[in-house]
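Thread: quick sanity check before group meeting

JM: Hey all, I'm pulling together slides for Thursday and realized we never actually wrote out the predicted structure for the chain we discussed last week. Dropping the sequence here so it's in one place. If anyone has concerns about the input, flag it before I start.
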Amino acid sequence: MIIDDQPYDVIIVGTGAGGGTLAQKLAPTGKRILILERGTVMALEDQNRADVDVFQKSRYRAPEQWYDQAGEPFSPQMNYAVGGNTKIYNAVLMRMRDRDFEAVTYQDGITPEWPLKYADWEPYYTAAEQLYQVHGQAQSDPTEPAHSADYPHAAIAHGPVIEPIVEMIQSQGLHPAPLPMSLTQQSDDPTGDAEVFGINLALKHPNVTLKTNAKVVELHTNLSGTEIVGVQAQINEQMFSFKADVVVLACGAVNSAALMLDSANEKHPNGLANGSDQLGRNLMKPLMTVIVERGAADNDGKFAPSVGINDFYWGDRDYNYPMGHIENSGGLLQDLIFAESPPVLSVLARLLPNASLTRLAKRSIGWWAQTGVLPNPNNRIYWQHTTRYNGQRRKKLRCEFTPNNLEAHDRLVYRWLEVLKDLEKTATGVRQSAVYPRSESPIEVMGYQCGTCRMGRDPATSVLNLDCRTHEIDNLYVVDSSFFPSCASVSPALTVMANALRVGDHLIERLNATA
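JM (edit): ok, ran it. Output follows.
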């Protein structure tokens, strides 16, 4: 093993929404920052796919296998590259609703109350929207919480195929609102991400070092187990050891928890900072169903998502529990998550020639229905160790997730189908669909994962304190979506970015630095 004797103040593991945002926050302090990313820079042509290639199996899968509840292997939809999963997300950056931070009563139970309320998050939401150059319009959504400042840019216009649909949705008494989007306004790389607005800005400072193809495999503590004294990483088949005053994990909710579990030692026999037995537990991801209006309208298959509907977020006329969020998928030839959910287009991708699939995609419109779930300690990730017949030891990463809050999600889907059928009867240029293929996103779709290192005040029931520092190890922090106590119906991305800025303020104070 090569010992890197460079003295670092901070090591950040991961470059996505959490790690990339934190890196740019800390970079101006002059503190010596090392960023470790297991992937490399993603080529522009791979980031901005807009053809049937998005339906080809395994293009956007991690080069590894996890194992589901039944012990069956799967390749997760994870992006190991500079910028993390933000390189393949749809760039929609929504705030959680103010009530999402409270104890929310779902039909299946009550969510935990967050220790920090919307008022605590609001300044950081605003700062994250400024950093990520969000284009939006807050006033049109009645569920949108109060903003202390407008979005930095006006909302993007709906495409020609979507504009008449939005007008018809409004005519039904609903409140379609422009989706807040992170955009660079660069023709070759239009969507904002954690590489563009995080890592690239951080690397302008000479005190910041980025190492790619660097997979962190273990964290080492001192003898008392109170401090991380070594970060072991494999870089191009060679093992290295790094050291810093502060270590921050931002590997994603699954991988950060897996790394801490795999770094168990005598002082932390069940995984680092796992005295609560909550590490790896309470894995959550929103229920997501894609609905296809097959043959509804001619389009180029490449338009951006632009409209969201939250009229059913907190319930409906005959249902008093939260149901969730609706948004259009954008063109079906560029929605990477859509490509992993096998309704008609993904099924036909294995049967039709590319030209036929393209024609079908260019006549269809897609919608996402998203519903939050409740934390469940039995939904978790853990390492399963086995011994093979030849005595060789091996380990598998088990990812066990049983969905809950299913009735609320079903109601949202069927309620939206009612809306679609009504508007197709009257909307100009929209053909009626005889069928509406739909499918829930499978376990492989892990982009919205959260909750495996819960934040809280009580060390007996949480892994992290309110600063996202582990209760048991003084210099170990986690800034990806692991910290979420509950899972809302919107993407966690903006909340992760806002939290990274919030934790950044704390670390600047801890390091006696100035930004």
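AS: nice. The chain is about 20% helix and 20% strand. Confidence is low (pLDDT under 50) at residues 50-55, 334-345.
JM: adding both to the slides.
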